[in-house]
Task: structure prediction
Amino acid sequence: MYYKIGVDVGGTNTDAVLVSHDNNILAKTKQTTTLDVSSGIENAIKQVLLDSNVPKEDIKYIMLGTTHCTNALVERKELNKIGAIRIGLPASSAIPTMTDFPEDLKLILGRHLYMVHGGYEFDGRLISPLEEDEVKACLLKMKGDIESLAITGIFSKTIPDQELQVAVWAKEVLGDAVRTSCSHQLGGLGLLERENAAILNAALQGVALKMVRAFKDTVQRLGFSSQLFIGQNDGTLMSLDQAQDFPVLTISSGPTNSIRGAGALSKVANGIVIDVGGTTSDGGVLVNFFPRESTQAAQIGGVLTNFRMPDVVAVGIGGGTIIRFKDKTCQLGPDSVGYRLKEKAVAFKGDTLTISDFFLANNQLEINGSIEKTAITEKIEQISGLHFSEALALVKYQIQLSIEKLVDKLKTDSKEIPVIACGGGAFLLPKKIEGASNVIFPEHLEVANAFGACIAQISSEDELIVNTLQCDEKQELERLLTNVGSELLKNGASEDSISILVKESIPLAYLPGAVKLKVKLCGDLID
Amino acid sequence: MRKINSKDIDYIAMGSTVLGTGGGGDPYIGKLLAKAAINKYGDVSLIQAEELKDDALVVPIAAFGAPLILVEKLFSGDEFIKAFEMMESYLGRKIDAVMPAEAGGLNGVIPFSIAAQKQIPLVDADGMGRAFPRLEMVTFTLHDIPVSPITQADEKGNKNVYDTISNEWGELLVGATAIQMGGSCAIGCYPMSGAQVKKAAVHGIVSYAQMLGEAILNAKAQNRNPLDALIENAAAIKLFTGKVSNVTIKIDGRWNKGVCEIMGLDDNQGCNMQLDFQNEFLMAKIDGKPVAMTPDLIVLIDAENARPITAETIQYGARVVVLAMKSDDQWRTPEGIELAGPKKFGYTEKYVPIEELNKKE
Result:
């Protein structure tokens, strides 16, 4: 018998759940996210341990889900000073590094961009040789001015050695403190998207380091010997070392965890999950307990990448959404008081009317420290100029309309499917939604996120292009499968649980013999 | 004549993806290339074919290669200029205007970068009105205009000039060399007089692409349904709504042929569509019965966001809408059907126009 703890660090709250090995929730908590991150994690872990009475030694795995990197990128905060080297001249010079970046991000990250000779053709021939002097001259220009370096070579997915060589020279010139992000480890084919991923990854390495350290130190300080994981975009887990090296892969773990968590809590395999937070309601589609992925290349912080992300549609409705009345009509948001609910909202002696105020006044919500219900009702009537029941009906009607529109947007056909509510703001969702067969409010819905982190499997994937005129395609595919499999075992999967998610070979148009091979495996953690 | 600026390129690139009918390469790269050139050298003059002098020299400039290579080994930009200048020196005279060879896909926008840099106009016309997989599949061939001389250049500086005995030979030889060049290169081909362009090209296609792109992107910006806007503006027939249930690709000689199966939803619940492609979509059948075929345009649209989907990026499970659009009248002549109709791609079905296949009884 062993146990797991799932922790979710959001912008406002740090949640934790403690579950048995077969995923029964034994304890849960919601704590405030702290500035240093780690004391929030510490409080949350201590609390679930205390509530469940499970001995520390029996906690085998601790999983962390976090939107830390996403927020850093969206808010352009705490980003590393980076440099970028692209290997491939004379090819590719028509579209320089960061060409299609948002201007503000280019300003922050675009100070040291260099293109050097090198790169490979699809069949492994050189475009031009890599020149040590040229690379080192670029590195010297960045020296002392960057914290991490993104390295991207043409067809490095097929032959990564030039990227690796530049990484070695970077260590020589810039020292060990400067971390490198090699593109071949981050994305698929498509130079710009892969280069963008390497750049974002480099920019996030500082934040990731802080996050990983906070997690590791906290857990060690508390005396755990558990194995630690961090959730990534596709709903599977990676080790802390991987997370430190590839923080960009954690960027959409938030929605993924909540969608998977809501599915597992409600035991519903297919449906629509609506995760209501303080600022937005995020809708996603659950297909066989996994989030439906968007078919379009994902934009992260305004930057095009080739990661596949859960298909999430957001509307500006959350617990902290500001409500304004005018001429007996009301408007919801789209702005929110966010995490400052307890300073700004009417229910906490503030002067801003929020959605939470209405549900508090109507006995549908309890929050510690709020003022008397009658006092809230009075204040609402004063601001709206309406009788409370009229004002409440208007607000609920607006919520109903927005949520029904959201559900309609997410649906693939006219068939009615279940809607599963989760998140701290789930109280505001209507009990009946047009287009939904039913609305499910599962037990523990407020910690779906942390629970989602807990139930994740681990996975590993890789792809490459081979020339089948020179090698045997089947053999190459088997070799790729073996490599990916041993990577997965190394990361802690139990051997008999490994299953193949993707195993494909796609011939390339116009190129006789050239085939793209791709393998993705997943498996359960060792019991 | 009107000026094309960087914003217009966004619209043209979106429209080119529609006209790419699943092939032609993703215009994203071409768009960045064209925008960079316009930002550096200024806006491009788009002229109608009638504005050309009869003895003007017009040359289509194009990217040639495998779509997947083009997004990994990006262009240096020089290869297009070299192909252009080689053509001038081979013919011993200045080029007066460039034009796209195919308005569908990447090549719908690439020529803007050369027009900007060389400060010459771009003709609002092409040789397909869509995308096709082979160099000889252009309306110019229907008018006996030779593809040669063809000039070819890669990013490394390798150059070639071809004098071929037929337009098919042009495709074969350039294709073989392109592989040695690393799977992508730039070409200049079908050098033509102004008089020939007036007679043989598909006219107004750049403006048409721009109009389609504006319809989609403006509808999105104004929160209207972009798919409806596209259908209305393209006078398209909505063939099918469904979900991709299977995609298979197989090699057949030099080509990748594929089949995309779509399971019907909404109005098409209970039916299945089979969509065949050879880079471009060639044949659409519902439960075995053809509803659209080459040379008419078959367009696969992502139901989520009304973006056209290219064949190499079709993904299992995607919700899609399949549209059909009429091809240019030149393709609907007996010669046009012979050059780019179903028989050319190995089908036994006889060409029937989409408006007849989808006639309401």
Observations:
- The domain at 235-357 of chain B is CATH 2.40.390.10 (CV3147-like).
- Chain B has two domains: 2-205, 235-357.
